[in-house]
């Protein structure tokens, strides 16, 4: 499906689209809940696309649908089957990105830890994937990050100092749906107070009291 070359905003959620063609002047596209496996582009050296949401489709990687869009600021590819991503390449290809949502996508790998660096990213949602503590500890060179959602992954603790001390602007850390150890849950709550950010765990719930025999002060 293709559209008028001067179209700026396009919302085509919940259809049965299998392909789209993006024109250079399109600035925002929402095409969630379709059957997309590819995005086609007009041959152009410049694209204005700033916001792209392609949740709940059939993409198996990020590279094909988004790398041509240098000006992209917000990207959501949640609920696609993307087992491996390469954050250094994503940030290199999309240097203006300030919001990235790759939740519920079976992501298990990030790429090289030393190469992951981006100063503009403010929101990163990696929740409900298959990330281990070792992979998570690679995300430590995002000095502009304010909201970080990593709940529902495959770890019960991680080296919080390694990650969080390198996120000086962090305001919210979301760990809901994580099977954290009791000691780590208490530790991360204390660290949040020390570093002045909000952490979402289950520490003040009956579930925590039953599992760990109490709650933090």
From TrEMBL:
Q: Name one Pfam family in it.
A: LRR_8
Mind telling me what this protein is named? AGAP007059-PA-like protein
For this UniProt record, give its keywords in alphabetical order, as a comma-separated list.
Leucine-rich repeat, Repeat
Q: Which domain of life is it from?
A: Eukaryota
Q: Does the keyword Repeat apply?
A: yes
